[in-house]
Each structure stands twice: as structure tokens, then as C-alpha cells.
Specification:
The longest helix has 118 residues. The chain has 9 helices and 3 strands; from the N terminus they run αααααααααβββ. Strand 2 and strand 3 form a beta hairpin. It has a 3-stranded antiparallel β-sheet with strand order 1-3-2, covered by helices on one side. By secondary structure, the chain is mainly α.
């Protein structure tokens, strides 16, 4: 009770000192080297996961690009084939149209010849009927002999037969030409249908080519972005690996300093005079660093602070040790000040602080602690390794 009253009575002075120490800009207080290393390793693992996902995406995009290029090539070949076919059809249609035009001219001439032949025959027949029997008898009597009569009769018969024959031939010729015209028109209609189908196919393929080209362009953009992301991730990975190596070297340096401190001059706990409020300071930092740890973990953190206090390599006050630049991250983050001001440290934290200030240690002369990492050996208590 007496200690509690003393703590309360001196708290204003302690807080003033702490606020003065924390008045240094926050960016000057980085996380501990161990925490930085842990964050960098975590970052590296996350980056590796992103790189693997990005590489998989790049592989998929390249496969898609190859497929799209193959499709585009195939479509262009189809378009060339259809275009050539369309040109052939247009040439065939042009030839067919010329053939139809020639046939129509031939048909027109045949019709004219047929009409002329028919008119000639009609005029000859009409002449015979119009002249009547008198002219016919006069013609017979004017013939000198019977043989002349027979010759004339045969001549007239031949003319009539010739007229009939020629009319039949002209009519047959006309019919053949009309059939040819009808066939040519049917063939042209069929060619027109083929041409229309080819034009539809050409338009369809052209549309597919446009779509495929757009997809290929879009895929190329995605691929370019993925490759740019890959380059950025690789650069970040290299930087992270460099940071990890630097932090590992720094930890090694800290271990060296710890060993050097162990071999340097150490005060005995009996030589230390604690200031008013040191118990509250130590309890608060124990709460910040090991509030969720078992009691042994809390005592170990308190022992590390006192070990530094006893070593000639570190400040010679509890306040100086706790607020030393870049040592305890809760100080830099402001959490330590909140815990101290609100009095959040619990009874176990105060008990561990009292034991540590009395010289009790369960970690020997260890001066550092962190969450365990591969390659770091020390005393493992709870979630920390002390070294």
C-alpha cells in the first residue's frame, strides 16, 4: 500500500519526464531490429506468393495469346479463301452476264429471221390467193409444153416446202436459244446466290477477325501489365531480400554487442538507486511487450531492461533504457505512453517489475528479445526468444 501511494504521489513527475522523452518525432522511433526482420520476412513470403500468382497469370495470358493468334491466323486464312472465292464468283457472274447478253442478241436475230421467213411465206401464199384461178389458168396456158408445166409445178412445190422447212428450222432455233437463255439465267441466279452467301460469310469472318483482334489487343495489354507487375515485384523482392540480409547482419551485430556488453563492466543491483516512478515505467513496458505472455515471460522482459541498466553499454536509468532510440517499439508508437497514463499495467506486471528490480532474472544477462526466427538461438520463454 505504501508503494502504491508513493507511485500515485510521484506519477505527475514521471509523466512529465515520459512526455519529454516522447516529444521526439515518432518517425525517429523505429520498430526493433527483430521486429523489422520479422516484418521483412513476412513481406518476402507475401511477395513470393504474389510473384507466383503473377507468374501463373503471365503463363495463362501467354497461352491465351498463342491461342488468340492461332485463331486470328485461321480466320484471316478463311477470309482470304472466301475473298478469292468471291472474286472467282464475280468473274463467273460477269462472264455469265456477257453470255446472256450475247444469247439475247442471238435470240433477237433469230426472232427477226423467223418473222421475216414467216412474212415471206405469207406474202407468197397471199399472192396466189389474191390472183385467183384466172391468173393461174393463164399461167398454165402460157406454158409452152407439159414438161415446162411439170417443172413449174415442182418449182412451186419446192418453194412451199422450202418455206415450211426454213420456218420450222428458224422456229426450232428460236426455241433452242430461248432454252439456252433460260438456262443461263438460272445459272446466273445460282451464281448470285453463291455470291450473296460468300459476301455474308466474308462479312461474318471479318466481324470475327475484328473481335479476335480486339481480344488479342486486350490480352496483350493485360500481359504487358502483368509483366510490368512482375518486374516491380521482382524489384521489390530484391529490395526485401537486401533488407533481410541487412537486418540479419544487424541482429548479428546486436548479438555481438550483447556479448560485448556481457563482457563489459556490469554494476551490481545493489549499486543501483531507482528513481521514483521507475516501477510504474518498468511495469508499463512489461505490459506493452509481454502483457499476453505468462508470468515468466513478463519477468524475462523486466530482467532485460534491468540487465541493460546494469551494463555499462546502455543508459544508467530505467527511463533512459526504455526510451533509448529504436529499442522498444511501443515507445515509438505511443502505446507505452497510453498504457502508463491510463495505468493499464496489471498486478503480474508490477510483481514482475518488482522482482526484476530486486535482481531476479530468468534469462541470465540477455539484453535482447524477439519472436523466434530460424537461426536465432537463445532462451525461449512463451512467444519470445531471449539472447
Amino acid at each position: 500500500m505504501k508503494k502504491a501511494a508513493l507511485r500515485k504521489g510521484k506519477m505527475a513527475l514521471v509523466l512529465a519526464v515520459i512526455l519529454l522523452a516522447c516529444a521526439v518525432p515518432a518517425e525517429l522511433y523505429a520498430t526493433t531490429t527483430q521486429q523489422q526482420l520479422e516484418e521483412e520476412i513476412k513481406n518476402k513470403n507475401e511477395l513470393q506468393g504474389e510473384i507466383n500468382e503473377n507468374n501463373q497469370a503471365i503463363g495463362d495470358l501467354k497461352d491465351k495469346e498463342a491461342a488468340l493468334r492461332a485463331d486470328l491466323k485461321s480466320l484471316k486464312e478463311q477470309l482470304t479463301e472466301v475473298s478469292e472465292k468471291l472474286e472467282e464468283l464475280e468473274e463467273s457472274i460477269a462472264l455469265k452476264e456477257q453470255e446472256i447478253a450475247d444469247t439475247m442478241e442471238e435470240l433477237e436475230r433469230a426472232k427477226e429471221t423467223e418473222a421475216w421467213q414467216y412474212q415471206c411465206m405469207v406474202e407468197r401464199i397471199q399472192y396466189v390467193y389474191e390472183q385467183g384461178e384466172t391468173d393461174y389458168l393463164e399461167l398454165l396456158f402460157s406454158i409452152g409444153s407439159f414438161s415446162d408445166f411439170l417443172n413449174y409445178s415442182e418449182y412451186m412445190t419446192a418453194i412451199v416446202e422450202y418455206d415450211r422447212k426454213m420456218l420450222a428450222e428458224y422456229e426450232e432455233t428460236r426455241l433452242l436459244i430461248e432454252e439456252k437463255e433460260a438456262q443461263l439465267l438460272a445459272e446466273k441466279a445460282e451464281l448470285d446466290e453463291y455470291k450473296l452467301a460468300a459476301e455474308v460469310e466474308k462479312s461474318k469472318i471479318a466481324g470475327l477477325i475484328s473481335q479476335a483482334a480486339n481480344r488479342a489487343a486486350e490480352n496483350s495489354e493485360f500481359l504487358a501489365q502483368a509483366e510490368a507487375d512482375a518486374a516491380a515485384l521482382e524489384a521489390e523482392m530484391r529490395k526485401t531480400e537486401e533488407n533481410i540480409e541487412a537486418l540479419k547482419k544487424k541482429i548479428e551485430e546486436e548479438k555481438r554487442l550483447s556479448e560485448a556488453a556481457a563482457n563489459a563492466a556490469w554494476r551490481d543491483i545493489s549499486e543501483v538507486t531507482f528513481a521514483d516512478g521507475d516501477l510504474a515505467l518498468l511495469a508499463a513496458i512489461i505490459y506493452c511487450e509481454a502483457g499476453g505472455e505468462p508470468y515468466a515471460g513478463k519477468l524475462a522482459v523486466g530482467a532485460v531492461v534491468i540487465n541493460r541498466l546494469l551494463s555499462s553499454k546502455y543508459p544508467d536509468t530505467v527511463l533512459g533504457v526504455i526510451t533509448q532510440r529504436k529499442q522498444f517499439s511501443p515507445v515509438g508508437s505511443g502505446r507505452f505512453e497510453v498504457v502508463l497514463t491510463a495505468g493499464r499495467a496489471n498486478a503480474d506486471c508490477y510483481r514482475a517489475a518488482e522482482e526484476a528490480m530486486s535482481g531476479v532474472t530468468n534469462v541470465g544477462n540477455c539484453l535482447y528479445f524477439r519472436t523466434p526466427i530460424e537461426g536465432l538461438t537463445g532462451i525461449n520463454i512463451g512467444g519470445h526468444v531471449f539472447y
